[in-house]
Amino acid sequence: MSNYRKGSHSVFSIHLHLVWITRYRKKILSGDIAQKARALIRGTCEKHQVEILKGHMAPDHIHLFVAIPPNLAVSKLMQQLKGRPSHAMISEFPLLRRQYWGRHMWARGYFCCSSGNVTDDVVKQRYCATGRC
After folding, report:
1. Tens digits of per-residue pLDDT, 67-103?
2. Domain range spanning residue 121?
3. Starting at the edge strand that comes first in sequence, how are the strands of the sheet with 51-57 ordered?
4. Which of 2-6, 46-50, 65-69, 73-77 has the lowest mean pLDDT?
5. Residues 89, 83 contacting (CB under 8 angstroms)
6. What pLDDT score was predicted for residue 1?
7. What is the CATH number of the domain that holds 25?
8. 128 C-beta neighbours (distance < 10 Å), count
9. 95 Cβ contact list (under 8 Å, min separation 6)
């Protein structure tokens, strides 16, 4: 039970695999731009109490494996992860301003997959163990 997080009225373990790509799959996430993106993403995650379990930044996409609290919607998290860093990086780096003149650094959409280890069989086994089935 040590890998569960606790809220005031809940105990939870919500793990998500998130992936999003740069617009036009341009390979711009390297050097100072990658460092700035990494720092902004970490800051956003800390602000929303999202724990980054693993992360990988490729030149044209980002993978994150995160643990989120139950009061945070995935769509709101992605809005924060894509919106704020994009605006900050486009205004800071002239290269990005030239390449993304429409002010959109990330492609539309994202990939999200929940990761859990509870199956229907596990739920039935625990429920039946209490004598309620």
Report:
1. 999 999 999 999 999 998 899 999 999 999 888 887 7
2. 5-129
3. 51-57, 61-68, 14-21, 111-115
4. 2-6
5. no
6. 45
7. 3.30.70.1290
8. 10
9. 28, 33
